[in-house]
Design a protein that fits this description.
This protein has about 130 residues and is an alpha/beta fold. The chain has helices at about 1-10, 20-25, 60-65, 75-80, 90-100, 115-130, and strands at about 10-15, 40-45, 85, 105-110.
């Protein structure tokens, strides 16, 4: 996403899960000097819950796929001098997004969600599309 923004020079929004963000945490260094507003939304469901959609027994899934890390991304944002917020409501998220789109500094927005919420929403969307 940082490379796309550098190529286009346009405001950019990226949405990642917590494990994906942790996997490439050092890439936040690329966001220290952005040419336009950059918003990185990190959906923190405490790791790997997308795998709950696999047809595997829950116990094995928890043991081998779900990797709870119990982390906050505030220290990572601070380490790279990025703006950070963790809004706890839709109204607060809207306010944070408004500020972020006006900021010359990249913003990390951490959305802490219940562990199974993302997979449940995705499954509902799939059912709606199929219907």
């Amino acid at each position: 996403a940082a490379g796309v923004q550098r190529a286009t020079g346009k405001p950019t929004l990226a949405v990642l899960g917590d494990l994906s963000t942790l996997y490439d945490l050092n890439a936040l260094a690329l966001l220290r000097d952005v040419p336009a507003p950059f918003v990185l939304i990190v959906v923190n469901n405490n790791g790997g819950q997308i795998f709950s959609m696999l047809p595997t027994p829950a116990r094995e899934r928890e043991k081998f796929y779900c990797m709870p890390q119990n982390v906050s991304f505030a220290p990572a944002a601070a380490m790279f001098s990025l703006n950070y917020d963790a809004p706890e409501s839709l109204a607060a998220l809207k306010e944070t997004m408004t500020r972020a789109w006006r900021s010359p500094v990249a913003t990390v927005i951490e959305l802490r969600v219940p562990e199974t919420a993302g997979a449940q929403v995705f499954q509902r969307l799939l059912k709606a599309v199929c219907a």
